[in-house]
Amino acid sequence: MRWKWPEGLQTWKGALGKYGYVLLVMAVGAVLLLLPAGGGDGPGEETAQAEGASFDLDAFETKLERALSQVEGAGEVQVVLALDGGSRQVLARNQERDTSGGGSNTVVTVGKGSGQQDIVPIQTVAPQFRGALVVCPGGGDPHVRLELIQAVGALTGLGADRISVCQGG
To answer: Are 66 and 87 in contact (CB under 8 A)?
Structure first.
């Protein structure tokens, strides 16, 4: 047996058939508006962004020491890295030129509400390494020394002339 629409809903049945897709799109849009936004202003994201923007030299040295201690014959490794300056951010800028050839160059900011402004970073540039010192018990062996220099050079971008490997006790 087939289900029949009640008498009062016959007109709604016709409209539903005619405008069904439009009503479906509107319903989906309403549901999406009610969902919480995942894009943005949560406190967890601000701290993650702030942590990612800075370079932690001590953590990098510790990680490098653990990796280099795995080299056969090196033993317990100590690493000291020297930096040229610190990390910096490249900021978004708005450049305006006028017809007379002059112009202005301003940093782009975004309002966060309540009168607060935030700068807009495009990228964070990590600091450049100046040199590296590696001290380990196996530093006197030429083969171990070569492997350590290659490993430090691969991870820091330093040339062999800026990496010193010493034998320690």
So the answer is: no
Length of the chain (residues): 169
> pTM of the prediction?
0.52
Q: Which of 155, 150, 141 is nearest to 74 (CA)?
A: 141
Q: 156: closest CA among 130, 134, 138?
A: 130
Region 54-87+126-169: CATH code = 3.30.300.30
Report the b/e string of 79-115 with b at 16+ CB within 10 A. bebeeeeeeeeeeeeeeeeeeeeeeeeeeeeeeeeee
Residue 138 structure tokens: 């196996």
The alpha carbon dihedral of 97, 103, 109, 113 has a sign of negative
- Retrieve residue 133's tokens: 């010192």
**Domains of the chain by residue range:** 54-87+126-169, 89-119
pLDDT, tens digit only, all 169 positions of the chain: 566 766 666 666 676 677 777 777 888 888 887 876 655 444 444 433 444 446 788 898 999 999 999 999 999 999 999 988 766 777 777 767 777 767 776 766 667 767 777 777 777 777 788 999 999 999 899 999 999 999 999 998 999 999 999 998 7
